Amino acid sequence: MNSHFFAMMARMKYIERWALMRNSDAENLSEHSLEVGMIAHALAVISNVRLGSRLDVGKAALIGMYHDATEIITGDLPTPIKYFNADIKSAYKEIEGVAADKLLALIPEDMRGYYEPVFKKNKEDEYIRKLVKAADKISALIKCIEEEKTGNREFASAKESTEKALDAMNLKEVDIFREEFLGSYYMTLDELQG
């Protein structure tokens, strides 16, 4: 029997992000998911190394990589719509759950147990999922910075609201990442190679 799971995952590259915004450089879900996975991994490493946690950094990376995979089915609903009110937010969460079930059903039964903890929330991974959410916001902030560097003012208010959302998360890992790594995103390639 053929499994369609990875062929579906490959379709992340067709889901465009930031649909309501004028972009200087388009971003797709596949690019975003890789970045979130890398940043979530880094936040978990920071948590372990600097703050004495014992998080599974590999799981943080995996959850980050797949955090928006349900959008292959649902599409990328813009944030202002997704969080417009409690009813829409709740309905969308339910739709995401159905989409996650559909994706999991594409995985062969004997492998599914390895993917369920990545797609389904559980108490054990609650803190890792907070870090993934933070990584998602950091990725959005990076997008805003990149657009700003091209002279695109379209992302100015998104940048401001994303910075406030990151501040409100009150996560030391996020503070450390922003302090030590975020400034580099303002630099040119020559400056980075320095």
Overview of the structural elements:
- It is a single chain.
- Helix 2 (29-51) crosses helix 10 (172-180), helix 3 packs across helix 8 (126-149) and helix 8 (126-149) packs antiparallel against helix 9 (156-169).
- The protein has helices spanning 5-9, 29-51, 57-66, 71-74, 79-82, 86-104, 109-119, 126-149, 156-169, 172-180, 189-193.
- The protein has one domain (5-193): Hypothetical protein af1432, CATH 1.10.3210.
- It is globular.
- Helix content is 66%, strand content 0%.
- The protein starts with a helix and ends with a helix.
- It is an all-alpha fold and 194 residues long.
Straight-line N-to-C gap? 52 Å
Mean pLDDT: 93
CATH architecture: Orthogonal Bundle
Total domain units: 1
CATH level 4 superfamily:
Hypothetical protein af1432
Q: Radius of gyration over alpha carbons? A: 17 Å
Query: Order of SSEs, N→C?
Result: HHHHHHHHHHH
Major beta sheet summary = none
